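Sequence, please.
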């Protein structure tokens, strides 16, 4: 009997949280359903020289500012049907909270900052958050920072726990200009860029004939 399951394994996009100092993975948060669309925007960083300066006009100041935007759905119906205890008691609160805390300083940090301010400290150092990595297949693994986060809760159980929701996430890719070369996040960005370059090298270039011209 064949062991072929009848359908290919579906890979899921998601978020990986990494300790920025040790590089140890702290948590993996897969998306329940992959988004239908992924919008990517690249803002080119040219030198911005004066008009007529040909040499400067062709220079790039650094990596472009790249951003991702996606909408993802989360639904607890299937887990409720099999009586998943976490879902039946809390609905989608745990998974939503796991994502939401990524844009909050921890309560311990806020308490420590308050205590430091009360003791007369003149400078409160912002806490370093976990490194957020967006994974959307093996060819797209990028360190990011959330720039937009919204949740639309669409259905609730009898205890008013959300059981169906839509997430709208905006992220900006962190480049070596943001984090440097010697950090885990910098190494991840360089791997992300090299993956782009490898895919570009694999592209089969066209010809002038396809453009209806004989040359430039």
């Amino acid at each position: 009997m064949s062991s072929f399951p009848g359908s290919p394994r579906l890979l899921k996009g998601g978020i990986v949280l990494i300790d920025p100092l040790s590089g140890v993975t702290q948590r993996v948060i897969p998306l329940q359903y992959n988004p239908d669309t992924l919008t990517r925007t690249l803002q080119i960083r040219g030198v911005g020289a004066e008009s007529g300066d040909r040499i400067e006009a062709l220079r790039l100041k650094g990596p472009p500012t790249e951003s991702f935007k996606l909408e993802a759905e989360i639904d607890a119906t299937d887990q409720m049907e099999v009586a998943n205890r976490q879902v039946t008691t809390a609905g989608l609160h745990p998974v939503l909270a796991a994502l939401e805390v990524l844009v909050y300083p921890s309560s311990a940090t806020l308490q420590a900052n308050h205590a430091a301010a009360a003791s007369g400290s003149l400078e409160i150092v912002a806490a370093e958050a976990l490194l957020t990595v967006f994974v959307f297949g093996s060819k797209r693994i990028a360190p990011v920072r959330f720039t937009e986060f919204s949740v639309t809760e669409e259905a609730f159980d009898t205890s008013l726990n959300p059981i169906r929701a839509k997430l709208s996430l905006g992220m900006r890719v962190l480049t070596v200009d943001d984090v440097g070369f010697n950090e885990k996040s910098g190494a991840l960005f360089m791997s992300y860029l090299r993956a782009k370059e490898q895919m570009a090298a694999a592209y089969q270039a066209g010809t002038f004939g396809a453009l209806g011209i004989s040359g430039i």
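The mean pLDDT is 88.
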